[in-house]
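Risk register update: the risk that structure generation would not scale has been downgraded. Supporting records follow, first protein first.
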Amino acid sequence: MEPFSAASSPAASPIVGGQDHVVPKARSVPVRREGFVQARVEGTASEMGLQHGEQLRAEIQELLEAVYHHVLFGQPGIVGWGVRRSIRTVTRLMTPFIPSRFRQEMAAVAHAANVPYADILMLNCFDDVLANLRLLGTLFGRIGCSTFALLPERTHPSELICGRNLDYFVESAAGDDPWAATNYMKEHLAVIDFRPQGRTGFTTVGWPGFVGTVTAMSQCQLVVGSMTVATNRNWAVATPACFLYRRVMEEASTLDSAIDILQRGRRSQGNNVLIGSGSEGAAAVVEYTPWRLAVRRPTEGWIAATNHFVHPRMSRYHGPYAHQSSAERFDRLADLCGCELDERLDASGAQQFLADVTRRTPDSTEYCSVSNPCTVYGTVFAPARGKLWVRPTDVPGRAFEELES
């Protein structure tokens, strides 16, 4: 197997459910913003995939070149062979449990971007694959995210405000700068507005070629922000989490209906996911493993989550890993969200929470702060107004940029 090259890449498999298509002219042109690209796609699954692949073709090809370099061919010899074989095998196990409309959309992305369908599939399953490959997940992905919600009683104007930092670390190829792969993630973000035919539209923060989501807001005023939790056991014969969250975006209209999708879904790994509903002024954190699920509700007008379980029924299902960073980030968010309970906060205040670099204890490392070297981006949502603010961390001091969903 040779490293990826767009010039020599075979076309994707025929688009699911039909014959090869002529790629239509994209209905919009991507906008280059400060630290990320923004695109809009609309229509059927195939139409959205074709527009996605055409608008972001160069970005998708470059991202896959980086994945091949750092991940699939990043380690030499038998180790590298084992990485490639394991990732492809676990991806194939998950594929039948991805809803067909998402597989059709990924096939269309691959077709228009002139890359293999298997590679787009791998990109979208990446986090769940690493979680299920336990040792490989430890080698490549060191994950630490932070999220919170402030209820209307705690904000000015009186509205739900949600915030999340996505933190990630990907091991670079042998011999490269250890931060090269992670820095690539920071430098190549994409915000995509999805307008699926017959379903609820939404805006997601992620990367070119990603059809699923881990950070998003829907036109039904729902927000999701997910965080991986290292658990004792995972289950590869299941739906990758990002597609469950996309279903929440497209199908749910209330907080309870969103939770129901996760309860009924076939789950692959441990996650904490913040769900906020602007129309209801409500939020919850769903803590789950493939076999268990519990819901936490806000207290004193706020709720927060990081990368460990807090619910009494879930806390014993952590994996045997250190949780200092997660616990300290959680406690710091509690300090921030709970301080000055008589003071109402706004979106600007929430942005300051996500940029906070305070360490709570003398023995804390820099990874114990809410904003830390692994933070890839921060996002604040005001779903009742359809507004979000995005801050990539590709350069120091980057400001949040306001967008409308």
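Supporting record for the second protein:
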Amino acid sequence: MGVAALRSGRREIADSLDRTPVLIDAGADAALKALADLAPLHNPPCLAAIHALRSLRPNMAQVACFDTTFHADMPAKASTYAVPRSWREQWDIRRFGFHGLSHAWASRRAGDLLSRPREQLRLVTAHLGAGASLAAVAFGRLVDTTMGFTPMEGLVMATRSGSVDPGLVLWVQGNGGLSAEEVEEALWNTIRDCVGCGGSLGISAA
């Protein structure tokens, strides 16, 4: 006998401080679309999947679970960038953090494996895949993470550059004549040009 799905849950990467899952209605759909450019490897495909399922099952409820929720209460000393206050206030610029669903699970699982509640532990959790990040979790609460305003910041990843000196970006634009779009494409997809920092795929030679 087949089982009919009644609801669909979806991991969303959009920069959001929503602390609970959100039913994807027209308003949520528009909000997710507005944030698509902050995670171009993730948000547009997620939206495409939402719309595809909606066309197939228009009466099925879809729920977004945000990857940033675990980081929502990150201390200001970790979430605040040293940029002009006007930028932070006008554009809500801060370190959002990502892979929160993974880090939340890993910290709980560590407690299980150690037979101690997460609230008694100080941990560093790692999410390692095509995207990669670390998080510091103290006594059950996120205190810092490597990803920031977008999922590009932090560790070197499969296609993403990770953190680079902002002065480097300004230099290649000013001296190399690269547009913002060209720089963005290069940093999100740097693997296409350098095939990893070691000149080959993988990390075995590192």
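Confidence is low (pLDDT under 50) at residues 1-6. On this basis the risk owner (M.S.) recommends closing the item.
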